[in-house]
Amino acid sequence: MTTQSAMPALAVRDLRKTYGNGVEALKGVSLEVAEGDFFALLGPNGAGKSTLIGIVSSLVNMSGGEAKVFGVDIARDRSAAMRLIGLVPQEINFNMFEKPYDILVNSAGFYGIPRDEACKRAKQYLDQMQLGAKAQQPSRTLSGGMKRRLMIARALMHRPKLLILDEPTAGVDIEIRRSMWRFIEQANAEGTTVILTTHYLEEAEQLCRNIAIIDHGRIIEHSSMKSLLSKLDVEGFVLDLADNLSGEPPAVPGVELKRRDAHTLELDMPRDTDLNRVFAALHDAGIVVRSMRNKTNRLEELFMRLTGDPNKEAAA
Ligand code: ADP
Ligand code: MG
To answer: CB neighbours of 109 closer than 8 A, spacing ≥ 6?
Structure first.
């Protein structure tokens, strides 16, 4: 990262926030997100994620520190920084009586985009987000998933270089989530830097290349997804068996192999163990494995260990 010469999309240094009620939400946060990255900001509830995002997008005043968006200091040139950012806030915040089409066109107008160009983009995004049929209905008639998609479309209307999404898929069902991610991945492939917070750690593991974990207002991890996951020293697997197993599975030194039920085994093993040894022992015992999967999501396991927070929603 240090050899990188390009301007980071986001550079935050020693950021602090103390709210009026005395809550210290950020206690000196430093963070860098490279241009073009797909970056996950994770942490339990109350960790400071939305506060950090709020400061970067000029909705919350910082108490101390510095934040730059593509080199633009948000304290010195707020409006230039805002033009570079598209924000999808945690709470739905458009006017429920306005129509989706108008919400998009007005947002573009706010950023000074000419009206005919704004109309063109609005149509395009409404189609891509499968909102075309709802374009001229009051937005209160949209389903929860449609409202979320409209928020994403609105954030993209001024073609920001940095798209920030604060729990965009909370409460959105799996199919809609997938189509949202395809859309966001496409924006990322076209060069938009993406930062997201999410409670769905599996989603973060699949989508994001780099990650920071924030806890109690401090960054406790900041690395690539790959190197973070490699810290997980024990992995758990579930093995589905072809035939019913009446007795116990064979003992394999160095790993824990347990019978869960007649056709399922559980395997816990240190990361540096040779998986072939386990399969050789199973083979010798005449046990045929049909399929295998991770017992829990790996990122989730790490997250719980690092933050010590069982974070109910993370397990959802
Ligand atoms: P997250 O998004 O990670 O759940 P937040 O940034 O929303 O965390 O909150 C961080 C901390 O700041 C929490 O303790 C929260 O209660 C507090 N907080 C957030 N917003 C405000 C506010 N407007 N006034 C006072 N305290 C706040
Ligand atoms: Mg939040």
So the answer is: 115, 118
